[in-house]
Phenylalanine--tRNA ligase alpha subunit
Amino acid sequence: MPARLATQLAAFQEALARVDSEAALYELQVAYLGKKGTVTQLRGEMGKLPPEERKGFGAEWNRVRNAIEAALEERRAYLKEQARRLDLARVEDLTLPPLRPPAGTLHPLSQTRRRLSESFQRLGFSLAVGPHVEHSKYNFDDLNVPKDHPARDMADTFFIRPHRHPGFDDHTDNDAAMRLRAGELVLRTHTSPVQVRTMLTQKPPIRIVALGTTFRCDDDATHSPMFHQIEGLYVDRGVTMADLKATLMDFTRDFYGRRLDVRFRPSFFPFVEPGAEFDIGCPFCGGDGCNLCKRTGYIEIGGCGMVHPAVFEACGIDPEVYTGWAFGFGVDRMTMSQHAVPHLRHMFEGDVRFLEQFP
Ligand code: FA5
């Protein structure tokens, strides 16, 4: 065998012994038999040999190439087999229990809503619901809120413009929508319209709570454009302010899990007379004054009072026979005060780092 061929074959065999992957094997193949491979190039030199040597060199070259190809093939089969053995020998512990996907928890507001409805159901109240898009008659007029009341101002109320849906031209809902005049549809500014809807459809005795979303054009640390209220209504013969006080004191003890100081501050709401703000003694400082209660020792929960006779009349209930009380509390503020949340915004941002704190 010509010396140059023998050198290449020996170098190849030495390199082959060190190959331990299919990728390295491929590189070796290219280095020797590729277009610019060292063995391929030797073939090109055949033309420079005297004619009598060419035939012998050609036969030797073929032998070397075949030997290299066979060795490559053998090594490839060996590497494949080794990889297969490794794969088979791998031990997977199929008895390990799978990782649990992270489970979500109820939003802190939903937790409060549940606890509130459970508390009032225990006190004998049933749950009532009303729509978010409300007629101004129920949101204002029937609640004795006059047309010039500041709450009707654009600063507080989101008005809805009735809109004919082009795809439903002959739909009766569309016709009803078009009969509404501007300013008649609003996003309910409180849950009090549920009082009206209930009294229009049920006869006393009535004992309901309505929990839900409410909307106002308001935005700061303790006011949000979308927030939640719980409304309570109790109507029967001989209902007095003393019933209201007793119920709210009972509820506070049940909800906060301990007896808290409470206070009723005279206040004005057109749909009650007399009216009051209901405050609880700050559950954090125990009344000494802290940042959460703005150093007053009390936290305002919402309004309450005796149902105004004008509201009874608008709902077809005789105010000479029946009396009743109502309240409307801010659910978000109650949640904030319960967990010392500094800004209302945290409730609606959906930040998992905040939500994880309420398992
Ligand atoms: C009312 O909404 C009356 N409907 C409550 C009522 C019902 C009084 C029945 C008498 C009888 P007020 O506007 O004060 O009242 O709101 C009640 C509570 O809702 C407030 O004390 C506060 O806790 C909460 N609230 C009001 N506006 C916002 C807001 N923008 N963001 C968060 N909470 C709010």
Observations:
- The chain has a mean pLDDT of 89.
- Residues 190, 192, 216, 218, 223-224, 227, 229, 269, 272, 275, 300, 302-305, 326-330, 332-333 surround adenosine-5'-[phenylalaninyl-phosphate] (CB under 6 Å).
